[in-house]
Amino acid sequence: MTETASTTATPLKDTGFGKKSAGPVEWLDDRLGLAGAVRKNIRKVFPDHWSFLLGEIALWSFVVLLLTGTFLTFWFQPSMAEVPYTGSYEPLRGLEMSQAYASTLNISFDIRGGLLVRQIHHWSAALFMAAIIAHMLRVFFTGAYRKPREVNWLIGIGLFALGLIEGFAGYSLPDDLLSGTGLRFVDGLIRSIPIVGSYLEFFVFGGEFPGELIIARLYMAHIFLLPGILLGLIAAHMLLLVYHKHTQWPGPGRTEKNVVGFPMLPVYAAKAGGFFFVVFGFTALMAAVLQINPIWTYGPYNPSEVTAGSQPDWYMGWVEGAVRIMPNWEFTIGPETFSLNVFIPAVLLMGLLFTVLAIWPFFETWATGDKEEHHLLQRPRNAPTRTAFGVAGMTFYGICWIAGGNDIIALKFNLDIFTITWICRIGVFVGPVIAFIVTRRICISLQRKDKDTLLHGYETGVIVRSAEGSYAEAHAPLPVDAAYALSARPRVPELTAPEAEDADGVRNPQGRKARLQAWAKRFFFSHDIDKPTQAEVDDAEHHFHGDVYPPDNFPDDFTGVSETGVPKHH
């Protein structure tokens, strides 16, 4: 006879540990009200879609940056004091260099695992910025920044801007010839600011470039000031995400008032925790097999030298490209020199970028007249003008990015650097316009296809012959779920402009503003293809049953065949 173990578990509150913990926990709950907040959000539902992982990649990359950065601070010395190198890298031994550069070499060659951790840190920084940009593009193209998430969009803009500054500060710390060349570039940007540029340079560098303080100042900003602000913004971003609830793609059962997905505990927390290890493992794999920033090949920074073919990290390359293609616009008024060839493409362009990104949600609200709350995402094709603007911006960025490597492109492909420069100069004006027109036409064509699919069904691949001898491809109506996903979007609004005067000839005091807003609304919506009306759907359903091969003859699990005749699934 065997003894059967009891399957009844003892509640945690009745265990010894639970009874001992009850007092302190109750004391904290009485003063902080934590139990109610946890109980309310522990079952918070999050939707499940691969595009939502982009934000998580940025979050976990930042965590990896914090962990690896903490490791590196134990050995890095943020000093520009000159010392002879006595480390194990033989080609540089005995050479005078800053303590910052010497300590970075020490981390790379003399600290166990130091090079791996340094490369994980650098790859994580690149992945962090890539994930932020991809996440922001996803938010932009799907309209996830609309009411009530405008503040969260502004927080995202702040994270993007601080990420650029944090990345620049990080790759400037080793004080090698490449990072010093980047610092010289930024010094030029600061000095190009009219009137106050030279004063700002002395303030930032503690004197004339390069000074003796910039590495220490960048170090404090990199490990303390900027990460603290980033942590605060990320916390605010996550809190607003929970407060507003997560956006979701249209589909059966999904409305503006609910969220369909998995609860925070245990499902989503387990998936998110596992995804952290995926991000960490992937970054570590890249660091182990893909070399990045080999500072020992550049040597210590010397203000009289410049690294041949120097390139910034990819997320800052577009700024350098804009400077390279800018004409030499420079003039002098009295004692002041105005270097517009640097100020306009770098300082002014970056300021313009972040200003446009920040005001876009409010501009779109004004232009479209849409003041409703939105928790369902838009397919990019259903917002053709917004999508076209986004692709135009990406085209401008890409051309500037190409211009940032015009010397490398000319060298590797044996091309004329001046030809490349002029192509990019013309391309930054022509390319975005072409991209805007083509993208909007593609989106409108896809809208037309969606409407046709809703009305006439999908192509089955079955060719039938009528009694008269003509051939046609049989269509079958979409499944209900697929049809709902295609039609779950608002109708195109009315595009009528208000009258400038009423019937009595009295001028409308708001007429000019209203007409401008009406023009903006027409610009956004006049080309859109509206979804079918109920009458059109009923008429199409009637015609389905008059087809040569009515859809009732298809098996229930039939979803068409491919071009090779193989059955496929939607």
UniProtKB/TrEMBL annotation:
Main location: membrane
Catalytic activity as recorded in UniProt: a quinol + 2 Fe(III)-[cytochrome c](out) = a quinone + 2 Fe(II)-[cytochrome c](out) + 2 H(+)(out)
Spans annotated as Disordered: 548-570
EC number: 7.1.1.8
PROSITE patterns documented for this protein: CYTB_NTER
Named cofactor requirement(s): heme
Biological-process GO terms, alphabetical: respiratory electron transport chain
Keywords: Cell membrane, Electron transport, Heme, Iron, Membrane, Metal-binding, Respiratory chain, Translocase, Transmembrane, Transmembrane helix, Transport
InterPro entries: Cyt_b/b6_N, Cytb/b6-like_sf, Di-haem_cyt_TM
Membrane topology: Multi-pass membrane protein
Compartments, record wording: Cell membrane
GO cellular component: plasma membrane
Protein name as catalogued: Cytochrome bc1 complex cytochrome b subunit
Class of the enzyme per the UniProt entry, highest EC level: translocase
Source organism of the structure: Mumia zhuanghuii
Keyword Transcription: no
Domain (Cytochrome b/b6 N-terminal region profile) ranges: 24-250
Alphabetical list of Pfam families matching this protein: Cytochrom_B_N_2
